[in-house]
Design brief:
- The structure holds two protein chains of two kinds.
- Chain A is of the alpha+beta class.
- Chain A has three domains: 114 residues, Acyl-CoA dehydrogenase/oxidase, N-terminal domain (Butyryl-Coa Dehydrogenase, subunit A, domain 1, Orthogonal Bundle); 108 residues, Butyryl-CoA Dehydrogenase, subunit A, domain 2 (Beta Barrel), CATH 2.40.110.10; 145 residues, Up-down Bundle (Butyryl-CoA Dehydrogenase, subunit A, domain 3), CATH 1.20.140.
- Helices cover 52% and strands 16% of the residues of chain A.
- Chain A has eleven helices and ten strands.
- In chain A, the strands form three sheets. In chain A, strands 1-4-5-8 form a four-stranded mixed beta sheet, with helices on one face. A four-stranded antiparallel beta sheet of chain A has the order 2-3-7-6, covered by helices on one side.
- In chain A, strand 9 and strand 10 form a beta hairpin.
- Chain A is globular and about 80 Å long.
- Chain A starts with 6 loop residues before the first helix and ends with a helix.
- Chain B is of the alpha/beta class.
- Chain B has one domain: Rossmann fold, CATH 3.40.50.
- Chain B has seven helices and 13 strands.
- In chain B, the strands form three sheets. In chain B, strands 11-10-9-12-8-1-6-7-13 form a nine-stranded mixed beta sheet, sandwiched between helices. A two-stranded antiparallel ribbon of chain B has the order 2-5. In chain B, strands 3-4 form a two-stranded antiparallel sheet.
- Chain B is globular and about 65 Å long.
- The chains are: A alpha+beta, B alpha/beta.
- Chains A and B meet through helix 1 of A and helix 2 and helix 6 of B.
Chain lengths: 380, 263
């Protein structure tokens, strides 16, 4: 066993961290206050080849592994949950399925701009009436000549209003259950009938757009079908395996960021004549944070490593996502407590981590659904 | 043309540390690329991007650990690297300017560069002399503390702007081959791209021993001896003014007048 990251991964971690500290952290609170998607940050990330880390080099990606991707996602999460969330939604949900399931022609047209970072990726699974029970969807795609006609409403779609393409899940065979779902590549700009109806104001992560979209007789040519008809659900399960690792990685980053803020503050803040880190009450909190962060990271890296070995990660990615998202919320809340009154102000980062962390227990499978998945894997 | 960029891995000290004899305890040190050298690398890479047929070679003197540092130069665009080290250098208490000059001079003889770029100084031992000393040793022209560089490759001339004392700047033309010591601010060092970092893993870092360079172990001998290492007493001369802007401005004026500033 070797718990050290490979040299290449270490260098990437170091350089991405430097970029995050110098370019993202200084504006991390401002973009939340302004509810602004920071396009300029994503342009720079594109220049540094960050936008296509686990994507085939042939199509403009970096050709890195899942562990490398997890390392990058954690670093982004350490400074900005919003940037990290838009980044992993772009990569895991909007880009990776094109890499895995696209034809060479689809990859050229749709994958390349995403892998190189020219455009943002998104996918649309959830609906107003379909969340945890994701396959019970109402969005329909009806074949009409050599086109499909899409109708429906999709909910909580990250990046939809800034996306180059959206991978839309729709029912093509209403009687076939899981096997009746298919995936379509939709172009928000050029496909008539696509409309972003709401950009949600949220408890946190407000620099990462979360949208409701309407599909009103959106006609797409048949070569926009990703994979075969009826493969949409299998693709979804495979995509979410990787997606959970990326949410676990962001969560580890949020926890790490909150932990660092609390640790630094506790060594500087003096009460009763000494740094508050010297009091058991605070020291124990910081130690407990370290324990939770380290555990979250180990579970995340293990699952990423398994993914790279080609092993099934259904259980390990669920465990990582469940544990890391909980760790992020708890560590962030304790960080607010360590900073006391200052922790409750927006001049300090722990409140931002606390707001952002809560979503990690909800998005890409709630904690309750993770328990269900893990229970099933345990044969319960 | 060939550009040789000298880089150094420098030690950074944590806020709290302990001194062990005449050195800072290794446990409190972290190693990183010398800040000035980062600007020298960027300058070299920019030359290779704007001119045809430029090879950028990076050289460092240091143990195997320093490969991490020099690999960052490769990630940012240097073509290949040379790392000089030897057991007899390992045993030396410190490598002074003379030792580094002789080691780098041997590399310059081997590589025959047209231009050598080095940082103005190292962030840790701060001699600030190696670049110019190297130029003298190998018989190159030189310019120190360069904060702007225009290169005429065909004419073999580097037009440089140098920072002098007291905010004065000097424009000088230097004939190649030359050594330029690079000041921070001459450019904006890039972040290494992820593709650059991945490619750097496959670029050559050639190890060279004293034997390879035709040098003997006495190159590390030094006339300098570190006799003590201590933290200087810190004196605080800060005066805090309290009160309204009117009051504090008056107090500041008084201090300036007493200090002889602005009669």
């Amino acid at each position: 066993m070797d718990f050290d990251l490979p040299t290449e991964h270490q260098m990437i971690q170091e350089e991405v961290r430097r970029f995050c500290d110098e370019e993202i952290e200084p504006i991390a609170q401002d973009i939340e206050d302004e509810h602004r998607f920071p396009q300029e940050i994503f342009d720079q990330l594109a220049d540094l080849d960050v936008m296509g880390v686990p994507i085939d080099e042939e199509y403009g990606g970096l050709g890195g592994d899942t562990l490398m991707y997890a390392v990058v996602a954690e670093e982004l999460g350490r400074v900005s949950g919003s940037v990290a969330l838009s980044y992993v939604a772009h990569t895991s949900l909007g880009t990776k399925p094109l890499d895995l399931f696209g034809t060479p022609k689809q990859k050229e047209e749709w994958l390349e701009p995403l892998a190189s970072g020219e455009g943002m990726g998104a996918w649309a699974l959830t609906e107003p009436g379909s969340g945890s029970d994701a396959s019970d969807m109402d969005t329909m795609a009806v074949k009409d000549g050599d086109e499909y006609v899409l109708n429906g409403t999709k909910q909580f779609i990250t990046n939809a209003n800034v996306a180059n393409s959206v991978l839309v899940k729709a029912v093509t065979d209403p009687g076939a259950g899981y096997d009746g779902i298919s995936t379509f590549i939709v172009d928000p700009e050029n496909d008539d009938g696509f409309e972003v109806s709401t950009v949600w104001d949220k408890m946190g992560l407000n620099a990462s757009p979360t949208c409701e979209i309407q599909l009103d007789d959106v006609r797409v040519p048949e070569d926009r079908l990703l994979g075969e008809e009826g493969e949409g659900w299998k693709q979804t399960m495979k995509t979410l395996d990787g997606g959970r690792i990326s949410i676990a990685a962001i969560s580890t980053g949020l926890a790490q960021g909150a932990y660092e803020a609390a640790k630094t503050y506790s060594k500087e803040r003096e009460q009763f004549g000494k740094p508050i880190s010297k009091f058991d009450a605070i020291r124990d909190k910081i130690v407990h944070m370290e324990r939770q962060v380290e555990r979250a990271r180990l579970l995340t890296h293990k699952s990423a490593w398994q993914y790279d070995q080609g092993e099934s990660v259904t259980k390990s990615s669920s465990l990582a996502k469940l544990d890391a998202s909980e760790a992020a919320r708890k560590v962030a809340e304790e960080a607010v407590q360590v900073l006391g009154g200052y922790g409750y102000t927006e001049d300090f980062s722990p409140q931002r981590f606390m707001r952002d962390a809560k979503l990690m227990e909800i998005g890409e499978g709630t904690s309750e659904i993770q328990h269900l998945v893990i229970g099933r894997e345990l044969g319960l | 043309m060939k550009v040789l960029v000298t880089v150094k891995e420098v030690a950074a000290v944590e806020d709290e540390f302990e001194i062990d004899g005449t050195a800072i305890d290794e446990a409190y040190l972290e190693y990183d690329l010398n800040e000035w050298d980062d600007y020298a690398i960027e300058e070299g890479v920019q030359i290779s991007e704007s001119e045809d047929d430029v090879e950028v070679v990076s050289v460092t003197i240091g143990p195997e650990r320093s490969e991490e540092t020099i690999r960052m130069a490769l990630a940012k665009g240097a073509d290949r690297a040379v790392r000089v080290w030897d057991d007899s250098l390992e045993d030396a208490e410190m490598l002074d300017v003379e030792a580094k000059t002789n080691l780098l001079a041997a590399v310059v003889e081997e590589e025959e560069p047209d231009l050598v770029l080095s940082g103005v100084q190292a962030d840790d031992d701060g001699f600030g002399a190696t670049g110019v000393s190297l130029a003298d040793e190998v018989g190159f022209e030189w310019a120190a503390v360069v904060n702007d560089l225009e290169l005429d490759v065909e004419g073999g001339v580097a037009s440089v702007r140098r920072e002098l004392e007291g905010g004065v700047e000097e424009l000088t033309d230097v004939d190649l081959p030359a050594v330029l010591t690079i000041q921070t601010g001459i450019n904006e060092p890039r972040y290494a791209s992820l593709r650059g970092i991945r490619q750097a893993q496959r670029k050559e870092i050639k190890p060279m021993t004293l034997d390879d360079l035709g040098l003997s172990a006495d190159v590390a001998e030094s006339d300098l001896e570190i006799v003590d290492m201590y933290e200087p007493e810190t004196e605080s001369d800060a005066t805090l003014f309290e009160g309204s802007p009117d009051e504090t401005a008056g107090q500041l004026a008084e201090v300036l007048r007493d200090g002889g500033v602005g009669q």
